[in-house]
Write a structure and sequence with these properties.
The structure holds 2 protein chains of 2 kinds. Chain A has a domain at 142-221. The model of chain A has no long low-confidence stretch (mean pLDDT 86). Chain A has helices at residues 2-36, 40-79, 83-103, 110-140, 147-162, 172-209. Chain A is mainly α. By secondary structure, chain B is α/β, with parallel strands linked by helices. Chain B has 2 domains: 12-32 and 254-276, no CATH class; 40-246, 3-Layer(aba) Sandwich (Rossmann fold). Chain B has 10 helices and 6 strands. A 6-stranded parallel beta sheet of chain B has the order 3-2-1-4-5-6, with helices on both faces. The two termini of chain B are 33 Å apart. In chain B, 47% of the residues are buried. Classes of the chains: A mainly alpha, B alpha/beta. At the A-B interface, helix 2, helix 4, helix 5 and helix 6 of A face helix 1, helix 4, helix 5, helix 8 and helix 9 of B.
Chain lengths: 221, 277
């Protein structure tokens, strides 16, 4: 009985962890190699993977997203949480593909009409509302509570002024100083972030490929 | 008598919202004509497109969402108008689904202004999912990536695409973006295939690309309503950039005033609190 259990545990580990890890390593190493090789065969393989296979994977991720959204929305409709909004979002989710399938998505199709006259104005409106919230937040939250906060505040004010059409009203050194902030301290911070992201991505990828990072398999066992 | 005080009809934030709305409305109605000084970064993009010989081919990629259209549209229009006025042939693509329809409409409407013909002077290839895959795959073969254009016509049935196989056959790529998609053009298009990348982006994204400009990985960049207004001045054609710049400028000044008032109130209250201790 004990022997059977240990064999079962071994097979389970093999199926749940080892095989996915091996597939991950094989594909990761192959894609990495193919990306940097200039041999015609490698280029063809790279093209097949990037054009065909990634698109198929993308389609499946869409299915997962849509199914998950529908399930959660229906569950919440049943519960009565934000029912009208969720019904509208569900109708939208169903209506757009139906419109696209019947009349297509080109030119003056109903799909494009809904996109241009419903989705675009709605999204632009929500985005534009940010201006009002920023105005309110700037009054209530943007305080020079400490020396670093004061530096940040002055930098923000100068940048705001430099991005306004105040030529001829403000002295030239205002915009020169704002440009200096953008090209020096701001860029230094941005570079640090970019280098950090790059190194982080590299180490995470290596950890996943080498099987050190295994949380994607469903947690450490 | 109730112990709790009733909420006022108008809170401070409501007044702030209303004031901002009124200030923008009045400014737009007055129609003040601000003086726009062209910055070197916008001038560089202009000079780049201006220096291309007639008949050159540029890829214009609409890498944005619908939400940023009020800012992106003036930016895109200036680039398209300048390119068409210089008889540059354009290939339109989109790496975000939402940019597809918007890009098609912008490119076809601008083409009409300059009597440009589809297939001869411009082509719209449309959306390709998975932007990194699309950029890499276009570097190998654009016709394999887009066997058909946006109008379902075979790739090579378009006269201007007959000799366009990959990035080697185009003068460069202009990415019109409201997010970080231009980064992928730089990291995969420029670094692997040496294609010249230019960015036309929203104001909020400009500092993101500054390091790439400094390292020459990104050839040139302009952006925001200010960039659009500057470009409109360069091509001597008014548009939504200049109009929007006006609204943006007054709202900036309004925000600056609010920050100053907020800080004065904060320091006065802090002084009072310290005085009462």
């Amino acid at each position: 009985m004990g022997d059977y259990r240990s064999k079962f545990a071994m097979v389970e580990t093999m199926m749940n962890r080892r095989i996915p890890q091996m597939i991950c390593f094989a594909f990761g190493a192959a894609l990495f190699t193919v990306f940097f090789l200039s041999h015609p065969l490698a280029k063809d393989l790279n093209l097949t993977i990037t054009v065909d296979y990634w698109q198929i994977i993308f389609a499946f991720t869409l299915i997962v997203g849509v199914v998950s959204f529908v399930r959660i929305t229906i569950k919440n409709i049943k519960k009565g949480e934000d029912r009208p909004y969720r019904i509208v979002s569900l109708i939208g989710l169903i209506a757009m593909p139906v419109l696209a399938l019947i009349w297509g998505i080109r030119g003056d199709s109903p799909f494009m009409w809904v996109f241009e006259y419903v989705q675009v104005p709605m999204q632009s409106t929500v985005f534009a509302l940010l201006a009002f919230f920023v105005a309110s937040a700037s009054f209530r939250g943007f305080r020079a509570r400490s020396a670093p906060a004061a530096v940040l505040l002055i930098a923000a004010l100068l940048t705001l002024l430099s991005r306004s059409s105040l030529e001829g009203i403000l002295p030239v050194y205002f915009s020169d100083f704002a440009d200096w902030i953008r090209s020096n301290p701001s860029m230094a911070a941005r570079r640090a972030i970019l280098i950090g992201i790059g190194l982080g991505s590299l180490t995470t990828s290596l950890r996943v490929l080498l099987g050190i990072e295994r949380t994607w398999l469903g947690g450490e066992k | 008598m109730s112990a709790t005080r009733s909420q006022p009809v108008f809170e401070t934030r409501h007044l702030i919202f209303l004031s901002l709305f009124l200030i923008i409305l009045v400014t737009m109605l007055i129609g003040y004509n601000p003086e726009i000084k062209v910055t070197s970064e916008t001038q560089k993009v202009y000079d780049y497109i201006d220096s291309l010989p007639s008949g050159s081919v540029l890829i214009v990629s609409f890498d944005h969402e619908a939400s940023s259209l009020p800012e992106i549209k003036p930016i895109a229009l200036t680039v398209l108008r300048h390119a068409f006025s210089k008889d540059i042939k354009l290939i339109g693509t989109a790496l975000l689904a939402e940019g597809t329809g918007v890009g098609y409409r912008l490119i076809t409407e601008t083409a009409k202004e300059y009597n440009k013909e589809y297939g001869q002077d411009f082509v719209y290839l449309g959306f390709k999912p998975q932007y990194i895959a699309a950029i890499l795959s276009m570097g190998e073969s654009i016709p394999d990536t887009y066997p058909e254009d946006y109008l379902d016509k075979p790739y090579f049935s378009n006269e201007m695409l007959k000799d366009i196989i990959n990035y080697d056959d185009v003068a460069g790529v202009i990415s019109i973006a409201d997010g970080s998609l231009t980064t992928h053009w730089i990291e995969y298009g420029a670094s692997r295939y040496n294609v010249n990348i230019t960015a036309a982006v929203t104001a909020a994204m400009m500092t993101t690309y500054d390091p790439y400009i400094a390292s020459n990985q990104l050839y040139a960049m302009f952006g925001g309503l200010r960039g659009a207004a500057e470009y409109e001045k360069l091509i001597d054609r008014g548009g939504a950039g200049k109009r929007g710049m006006l609204a943006q400028s007054v709202s900036h000044i309004y925000v600056i005033i609010l920050i100053i008032i907020g800080n004065i109130m904060y320091f006065v209250q802090r002084k009072r609190r310290r005085g009462s201790k």
